[in-house]
Amino acid sequence: MSIIILSFTKNPSYYTMLKDCIESIGDYEIVVVETNNKLKGKDMMLPAKFIFPEEEFNYNKFLNYGFQNLSSKEKVIISNNDVVYEPGCIDALFESLDTYDSVSPVEKYSAKDITGYTVGEHVKGWCIGLNYKVYEQMGGWDESFKFWYQDNDYCNFLQKHSLNHALIGSAVAKHLCSKSHSLVGDLKEFTNDQISTLEQKWGK
Question: N or C: lower Cβ tally within 10 Å for the chain?
Answer without folding.
Answer: C
